Amino acid sequence: MANPRKIFVGICSKVGRPGSYIQGAGKVYIGNYVRFAPNIGVLSSNHDLYNRDKYNDASIKIGDYCWIGMNSIILAGVELGENTIVGAGAVVTKSFPEGHCIIAGNPAKIIKQLDKNFFKPWYYPIECQYYGYIPKDKFEKMRSRYLDDDL
Q1: Contact 136, 129 (CB under 8 A)
Q2: Any idea where the domains of the chain sit in the sequence?
Q3: With bands split at pLDDT 50, 70 and 90, how would you rate the model's confidence at 140?
Q4: Do the Cβ atoms of 91 and 110 come closer than 8 Å?
Q5: pLDDT digits over 69-120, tens only?
Q6: 54: which of 42, 48, 79, 148 fits an S-S bond (Cβ 3.0–4.6 Å)?
Q7: 64-67 — which CB contacts under 8 Å span 24+ positions?
């Protein structure tokens, strides 16, 4: 992780997989119950095309219940809506804020719409109330210790 104070990870999200890299320069918000496969790249900043010493930051938002497939890359400024599934090896260069879809390819595009009525978020266990390895109530008390105020 780079710039961890600008990275928020929601309840019961599993993002610490081998080979994954989350760059928080432009802020990264990862919702609840999100799943990452190994070797994910989440890059909220990129070099300027004409001045490689300058960075262009843009925040990334990954909605609740998303699933990001192995070797995927999510680039700066992208928003993924609730229940978006990113196929393995996808390069996500634009937003899919409506969610409830499967995206894949380079650049990623919608390959299947998912039925919003069939999606049941209650399937996820309510008793699982952790931010990483920190219980929710403890994390809320210590939040400012780990995150910038505007996240």
Answers
A1: yes
A2: 4-116+128-142
A3: confident
A4: no
A5: 999 999 999 999 999 999 999 999 999 999 999 999 999 999 999 998 887 6
A6: 48
A7: 64/10, 64/31, 64/32, 64/33, 64/34, 64/121, 65/31, 65/32, 65/33, 65/34, 65/119, 65/121, 65/124, 66/31, 66/34, 66/35, 66/99, 67/34, 67/35
- Cβ neighbors of 137 (< 8 A, separation 6 or more) are 129
47 catalytic per annotation? yes
Q: What is the DSSP letter of 5?
A: G
pTM for the structure as a whole = 0.85
Q: Give φ, ψ of 145 to 5 degrees.
A: -70, -30
Q: Which two tokens stand for residue 136?
A: 């929710």
Residue 23 is predicted with a pLDDT of 93
Amino acid at 147: L
CATH code linked to domain 4-116+128-142 = 2.160.10.10
One of 47, 94, 116, 141 is an active-site residue; which one?
A: 47
